[in-house]
Amino acid sequence: MSEQNKKLDLKKNSDEKSKIVELLEENLKVSRQILKLSQKTQRWIVLQKIKAVIYFILIIAPIILAAIYLPPILSGLLEQYQELLGIFPNK
Is the pTM of this model over 0.85? Predict the structure, then answer.
């Protein structure tokens, strides 16, 4: 009987090993899919950061530059306009 028990144990072990191998292969497939998706997500995040920088350069930077450089220009233009109309500011 002990030989039969050993054979049964060996058969159970081989069945368990095959199940473990199948599970490992399935796990490997799923892990590869997750890796592909995470790489796509990383690329998307990088592109969004680049897009944000471009938006900043195209929208916010001109507003800041206008706030810095326009007041002196506009004051000079306002003085010229007042001279044309004959309006003299109180000095």
Answer: no
